[in-house]
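REVIEWER CHECKLIST
Item 1: Sequence provided? yes
Item 2: Single chain? yes
Item 3: Sequence as submitted:
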Amino acid sequence: MRNFSRPIQHRKFYTLNYRIEAPTLRVIDDQSKQIGVLPKQEALRIAEEKGLDLVLIAQKAVPPVAKIIDFKKFLYQEKKKEQEAKKGIKRSVVKDLSLSLFIGPADLARLEKRGKEFLDKGHQLRLNLTLRGREMGKKQMAFDLLKRYITTLGEVNVSKEPKIEGRVIRAVVARKK
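Item 4: Structure as written out by the authors:
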């Protein structure tokens, strides 16, 4: 069975050298100066003389645009541009904290401290309060405990109010901006 959980990576494919099918090309040299519209064979000859590759950049243009470049260096620069673009994106991390209905005061204090640390780092906090057995009859007590815990965290935005989902009461909070 195949695992489809990996994200799909879209790769760019470039046509280069003898795989270019267009008979005439608008050619740009390695100094980014336009040479002009040339037959494919002439452009390939110029690229071979310089020891570089002829890469099709704009296939749908009329005539298609090709550039004389070192292809491996070009791929390296493209990869660097993609990495720079990814640096600007900040991803929000959601941290989970699990509580129980009859939690001791020392454990509650420890979880409050841990929750404040996560919020100070800029993470969101998902609070899970699991009800077991006869605890299902004490739902109001569980909601009160969760709301009291949220108030001890200080200035927070409650992005998802406490809500019961099966046997678990969940809430999501984040630091106010």
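Item 5: Key structural point noted by reviewer: The chain has two domains: 17-78, 94-175.
Item 6: Recommendation: ____
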